[in-house]
Amino acid sequence: MQVTQTNADGLKHEFKVVIPAGHLEEKVSTRLAEVGRTVRIPGFRPGKVPMGILRKKYGSSVMGEVLESAVNDGTQHALDEHKLRPAVQPKVEITSFKEGDDLEFTIAVETLPEVKISGLGDLALEKPVAEVTDVEVEQALQNIASRQEKTEAAEKTHAAESGEVVVIDFLGKVDGVAFDGGKAEGYSLKLGSGNFIPGFEDQLIGAKAEEERVVKVTFPADYGSDALAGKDAEFEVKVHEVRKVVPAVLDDELAKGVGLETLDELKKAVREEIERDYTNLSRAHLKRHLLDQLAAQYDFGVPEGMVELEFDAIWKQLEKDKSEGRLDAADQGKSDETLKEEYRAIATRRVRLGLVLSEVGRENNITIVQEDLNRAVMAEARRYPGQEHLVFQYFQKNPDALNSLRAPIFEEKVIDFILELAKVTEKVVSIDDLRKDPEDETASEAADAAPKPKKKAAKKKVAAEE
User: Fold this and answer.
1) Which fold has domain 2-110?
2) What residue stretches are annotated with the PPIase FKBP-type domain (predicted)?
């Protein structure tokens, strides 16, 4: 095998590989002999089939196997010989081959840049924290109570008020024609909930049982259905019943309704849940501060192939958001050229940060163990109460889905490692400040763990375990 480097330009390398015809023929003959020991051909005992017949019957497929193996071996040899770490799958092109002649092919590969990590202990980070107040706990309890409230039928002469429930049939029409999704019977609607089109609920205030009304509304311009967006509509509504809301009382019985024994236990559980929420918010801000500092500290060329893969994922999500009317306000009105320029910069930063975190993990032997994966699966299962067993089955039957958890786990472990070294100080802030999107704190474009378009576009971690 002859390997010649034909180009070395930064992270881009190209090679020409020549594999002698004799080497290929030897591999083909060896493989045909293996086939001959097991294949059954009428008129011949196993292991006694003449090589000529084997070559005629299986030569073409065996040659395909040998060529594929030779290309893989030659590519790996070129990478190993020059101590290169490919960033993406190398591009291989066979330039010359005819049976009986040498195999010639070229390899084009982008490599990972050399990243020198230093000064992690010098990072100075600020972690915003907020205290859980009794007012917030009380508000959370009231929210729980509102979900436990009951209703009772009002007198037929009672006029519906905001906050009460009307049980209705309705049929919606645009230009006198009924439309899909505009009909329901026995629907319970809480007036003032904002669940229906603006203006719909207001026009039912004062309605009584057995009353019929025509409700006139205009669908919002940004309504999810293009066929209805901005259109005037009329709903024929029949009120069957008006029901008054009976508020739930904050007591032990309410606590038992949500699986606890006493109101004090419920208060404690609510406070702990809010504290966990605040802890997660604090970490999100702290992580953003860390990523911003790393982005400012490390500036090196990144593989174009990795950037394109990242950008393609972002752009695909953005186009999906655009088609569903969920494009960020900041992106609306911009040309595709402008958006592509902005998002390619985001993709570049994400790749660069991913390489930094990956190198920190590699240098410090940070790895993923089975226990890490088990915890991640448990966390996913907790997101679907009552369906946990289905989540477990999904990951058991889909190894690729399980492997997809590795990159975010690895990233969080690397972040934890860096934070242990960095100088972190706490700053008490208001809950409003803590709840602000960490992405909005700085002007730089982020590569965070759960990006939303502009920031939300590709839901993937910035680092991947090598």
Assistant:
1) Alpha-Beta Plaits (3.30.70)
2) 163-245
pLDDT in tens, 35-91: 888 888 888 887 888 888 888 888 889 999 999 999 999 999 999 999 999 999 999
CATH number of the domain located at residue range(s) 263-456 in this protein: 1.10.3120.10
Six token digits for residue 431: 């809950």
Residue 179 phi, psi dihedral angles, 5° rounding: -120, 155
Name the pairing type of β-strands 12-19 and 2-9. Answer: antiparallel
Tell me: the pLDDT tens digits for 280-329? 999 999 999 999 999 999 999 999 999 999 999 999 999 988 888 788 87
Tokens of 112: 């990972």
Nearest in space to 353 (alpha carbons), one of 248, 446, 270, 260: 446
Please measure the distance between the N-terminal and C-terminal CA atoms of the chain and give it in whole angstroms. 29
| Angle between the N-to-C axes of helices 406-421 and 336-363, in degrees from 0 to 180, rounded to the nearest 10 | 70
Strand 165-174 with 91-96, pairing = unpaired
The two structure tokens encoding residue 280: 């997660």
Segments making up each domain of the chain, as ranges: 2-110, 150-246, 263-456
* CATH no. of 150-246: 3.10.50.40
Asked if 378 and 392 count as a contact pair (C-beta separation under 8 A), the reply is no
* DSSP, res 86: B
